[in-house]
Amino acid sequence: MSTLKAVRGTRDLLPPETELWNKVEATARRVFARYNFGEIRTPLFEDTSLFARGVGEETDIVSKEMYTWEDRARAQSEKPQSLTLRPENTAGVVRAYIEHKLGETGMLQKLYYIGPQFRRERPQKGRYRQFWQIGAEVIGPASAGSESPLRDAEVLEMLAAFLHELGIRDAKLSINSVGSASDRPRYVAALREALQDKAPQMCVDCQRRAETNPLRVLDCKVPEDQPIIDALPKIADYLDEESKAHFAAVCAALDACGVAYEVNPRLVRGLDYYTRTTFEFSHGGLGAQNALLGGGRYDGLSEAIGGPKAPGIGFAMGEDRLILTLQAQASEAASTLADAYVAPLGEGMNAAALRLAHELRGAGLKIELGDGSFRLKKSFEMGNKLARKIILFGEDELASGMLTVKDFASGEQVKVARGEIAHFLGA
């Protein structure tokens, strides 16, 4: 009998890795709460038509990647219902907004979720067939300000705060506008016309997308296709004045709160429901597929699935990829940090501190040496940047032979005999 294993594209999350997952989720809940978001939990599967109507029948998600089956009819006269494991969660959240008549409150609904999604795509690093997302949506009647560019900027500022608090360094924000429901068809028509002669020279996926969903051509990562894509029409040239003003207001608000960004005219996102603002945070540590999270505005999604007018904006981040980024940063830090930072307490201790550093280096340890002219606070700041531990070395320590050692990660501070210090540090 063969040994049973996890299905391809799925995996088990085990300790101690789950501790990092819990940290990410706890940080999301803490940061989102400061912006007055509440948690929503929707079913793992929905009626298939929700995604066909909401996400778009011509998207790769709906046409190729969904896990769909026919549920057994409860009676012979009933037609079996087509059900789908959720491939994304925005459509489900908007369905819940409509079903529970949340718009009748007259208030903005600020909702976040954490949970698994399912897509039948080729498994690769950071991408699984069951994957975890953290996401949020701001949706409500226009009278509550749901169409305001301030909502877009606030969501982006919240995401920048979340990534900063999580400790993810060097994340880059790219933004664009894909225009209104009337702008987008004009641009799609211009793209389709421009691709008529060029598509046959492109990859197989782009040849198909040129007919079914030309916007997805702009997402192509095949190197040989990039010169062709760079020469295609730009969405900014097809925006009406209202869409241009909306995007300019988003940028102005981001500037006002100090959130750095770059405008990327190729950023369109792959789902049909996006309008106006689209965005993406990326990180170089993830390689070619470097997106950490993305999202945008979807002012017509509620109407598309049978609900009232309810403009909204939201995002989803792949938790698997966030974890990869954090693990890569931890590995990088571990490889570059010194074992200890020797901090002489006063300039008169410099020579003795150098002797201690010399002894520890002789034992094979990686040591950084401070200067006695530093104030204690500066010694801690420098030590925290350069080493895993700090050794405080003053006259008391020299006289007693007991060194004060603090671990920056745990915050633990202990006394260690000088003769034992090399062994304590791992030599």
From TrEMBL:
Pfam families: HGTP_anticodon, tRNA-synt_His. The keyword Metal-binding does not apply. GO terms for biological process: histidyl-tRNA aminoacylation. L-histidine binds at E88, N89, T90, R119, Q133, E137, R269, Y273, Y274. It is an enzyme of class 6 (ligase). One of its GO terms (molecular function) is ATP binding. It is found in: Cytoplasm. One of its GO terms (cellular component) is cytoplasm. It catalyses: tRNA(His) + L-histidine + ATP = L-histidyl-tRNA(His) + AMP + diphosphate + H(+). Its main location: cytoplasm. Keywords: Aminoacyl-tRNA synthetase, ATP-binding, Cytoplasm, Ligase, Nucleotide-binding, Protein biosynthesis. Its EC number is 6.1.1.21. Residues 1-344 form the Aminoacyl-transfer RNA synthetases class-II family profile domain. Belongs to the class-II aminoacyl-tRNA synthetase family. Homodimer. PANTHER family: HISTIDINE--TRNA LIGASE, MITOCHONDRIAL-RELATED, HISTIDYL-TRNA SYNTHETASE. This is Histidine--tRNA ligase. It comes from Acidobacterium capsulatum (strain ATCC 51196 / DSM 11244 / BCRC 80197 / JCM 7670 / NBRC 15755 / NCIMB 13165 / 161). The lineage of its organism: Bacteria, Pseudomonadati, Acidobacteriota, Terriglobia, Terriglobales.
